[in-house]
Amino acid sequence: MKIPIFPLSSTLFPDGLLHLKIFEMHYLQMTKKAFQETQPFGVVTIQEGSETRVPGQTVEFSHIGVLAHILRFEEVQPNLYLLLCKGVERFTILSKELQSNGLWMAEVSLLPPDPESLIPLELQETANKLGKVILSLQQHSIKTSEMPFSQPYRLDDCGWVANRWCEMLPLNAGQKELLLGQTNPRLRLDLINDILDEIQISIQFPGR
């Protein structure tokens, strides 16, 4: 499977929502084509360099990423798009190539989705804390369309709960890559639980 790649400073997880402001020509062309053809593109985490193209700058990014499907496409101006995307399958990069226009293309192999894994009793509090975050947003009259999580809220599933915490916690790129690559959702949630026990967090949602 060959797909265009969008390196970002943030990390997308399966079922996660991603707001994008597109203004560079190669991404304008890529995302418009992806929307018109209902095709995904790959989102990977930058390890070195910046999101905006800088001549002569080296950009290195993770070998693991997530396919993004465009849910909402708004052409604000001819050279400015606002997108809402949703993460789907994970993938690993087999080979990559930087095109002359600055767009990365990669041959990728899809990873299997998380198997369904019910929350064990010893991790129930981690799921309960996420439920309280969602309830707090609802009590503040946040519209469903503006929520940082997409429905259904699968608070009984290890993978879904772990992925939402991965998006919210102040983790570095290496930590997020490790968690994204973890194929056992129960173990991913175990790691999240350990992190929550160690740190005090102030959750900030993108775009709010």
Description:
The chain has a 5-stranded mixed barrel. α3 crosses α5. It contains 5 helices and 6 strands. A hairpin with a 2-residue loop joins β4 and β5. By secondary structure, it is of the alpha+beta class.
Radius of gyration: 17 Å
In CATH, the topology of the largest domain is named: Archaeosine Trna-guanine Transglycosylase, Chain: A, domain 4
Mean pLDDT: 91
Ranges with pLDDT <50 over ≥5 residues?
none
**What's the number of domains?**
2
Ends: how far apart?
35 Å
Q: What is the percent of helical residues?
A: 25-40%
Give the CATH superfamily of the largest domain.
LON domain-like
Biggest sheet overview: 5 strands, mixed, barrel
In what range is the share of β-strand residues?
A: 25-35%
What attributes does this structure have?
5 helices, Archaeosine Trna-guanine Transglycosylase, Chain: A, domain 4, alpha+beta, single chain, five-stranded mixed barrel, 208 residues, LON domain-like fold, 2 domains
Summarize the topology:
Elements: E1 2-8, E2 17-22, H1 25-36, E3 41-48, E4 60-77, E5 80-98, E6 104-110, H2 124-139, H3 158-168, H4 173-181, H5 185-198
Parallel strand pairs: 1-3
Antiparallel strand pairs: 1-6, 2-5, 3-4, 4-5, 5-6
